[in-house]
Design a protein that fits this description.
Elements (H helix, E strand, L loop, with lengths): L13 H6 L10 E8 L6 E2 L7 E4 L3 H10 L4 E7 L16 H12 L5 E5 L13 E3 L5 E3 L1 H18 L3 E4 L6 H11 L6 E8 L8 H4 L20 H13 L3 E5 L5 H10 L4 E5 L1 H12 L5 H15 L3 E4 L2 H7 L3
Helix pairs in contact: 2-3, 3-4, 4-5
This protein binds ligand PBG.
Length: about 325
């Protein structure tokens, strides 16, 4: 005990601190989310997310080279179609914004890891993550089993366009298995599935609903996304997705759910990702713009905390800035 034992000895110099540092964050840990719009000719800044824009598909090649040159771990693509319908059929259009952007990115930077978000909420006119039906009480709900087919077909189109990984974010039961079966039956057994295994019904998605134009037109997503109060349920979702064949799993959001990231890390041997979502990004940006926080230090500390909790990689809108701050 004190005075013999003094933890401060190892904090005395920068070289000692570096030697005993437990967690690290590098550009290759980051996956950059990108929003490609079929309707745009020029980038359109997203008001709620300073520094983030909806992009025209023709910007894809340049974004791919930027991500590669910064040494990012990869990109994840979201699409904004021109036309939406009740079933989200545009998510299965081989000429839609995501398949076209994937092809252009793989062409421009073949070694870049390209992931596609698989969900229909950007493609449905009602903004929900699936096909609707009336339940036994006469209320409109998302029809789990009917949605599996459109998800599987969308993943197939994304994989055929060249995606290395498809990432279902819809939270339907059984979708990992349905997507795995569809890929395997079509000779795409090498394409990996990154499951949004643990996705909470979170207020921190607010800003992205501008970027991806995917706010539900009625109700909310609490009938399919998880209750923020639940931790054991996260492990149940994890176990099911592992059994259905997920290659990697994700927890979303990240910062308000670091306890969940740590629990998932302990329970699985699969790679674990965490999604540092739009609201987490917007909070740091807004505080920095108001002069309340040092943006660089706060961002790198937040990203480090997600790694320390146990995430192998982080989906983050800070990816480009953070990679540059880290010397990329
Ligand atoms: C839904 C989806 C959402 C995000 C990614 N995929 C929104 C939602 O679930 O409502 C949010 C990402 C973020 O907030 O950064 N397909």
């Amino acid at each position: 005990m004190f005075p013999t034992i003094r933890p401060r000895r190892l904090r005395r110099t920068a070289s000692l601190r570096r030697l005993v540092r437990e967690a690290h964050v590098e550009p290759s840990d980051f996956i950059l989310p990108l929003f490609f719009s079929e309707a745009l000719d020029e980038a359109r800044p997203v008001a709620t997310m300073p520094g983030v824009s909806q992009l025209p598909v023709r910007a894809a090649a340049e974004q791919a080279k930027l991500a590669r040159d910064l040494g990012l771990g990869g990109v994840i693509l979201f699409g904004l179609p021109k036309v939406k319908d009740a079933h989200g059929e545009a998510a299965c259009d081989p000429n839609g914004p995501v398949p076209r952007a994937v092809a252009a990115m793989k062409d421009a930077a073949p070694e870049l890891c390209v992931i596609t978000d698989t969900c229909v909420d950007e493609y449905t006119d009602h903004g929900h993550c699936g096909i609707l039906k009336k339940d036994s009480r006469g209320e409109m709900v998302v029809d789990n089993d009917a949605t599996l087919d459109v998800l599987a077909r969308s993943a197939l189109v994304q994989a055929k366009a060249g995606a290395d990984v498809v990432a279902p974010s819809d939270m339907m039961d059984g979708r990992v298995g349905a997507i795995r079966t569809a890929l395997d039956q079509n000779g795409l057994e090498d394409i990996a599935i990154l499951s949004y295994a643990v996705k909470y019904a979170s207020s921190f998605y607010g800003p992205v609903r501008d970027a991806a134009d995917c706010a539900p037109k009625f109700g909310d997503r609490s009938g399919y996304q998880m209750d923020p109060a639940n931790a054991r349920e996260a492990l149940r979702e994890l176990e099911l997705d592992e059994r259905e064949g997920a290659d990697m799993v994700m927890v979303k959001p990240a910062l308000p759910y670091l306890d969940i990231v740590a629990k998932v890390r302990e329970k699985t041997n699969l790679p674990v990702g965490a999604y540092n979502v739009s609201g987490e990004y917007a909070m740091i940006k807004a505080a920095a713009q108001a002069g309340m926080l040092d943006e660089k230090r706060a961002t790198l500390e937040a990203l480090l905390s997600i790694r320390r909790a146990g995430a192998d990689f982080i989906l983050t809108y800070h990816a480009i800035d953070a990679a540059r701050w880290l010397g990329a």
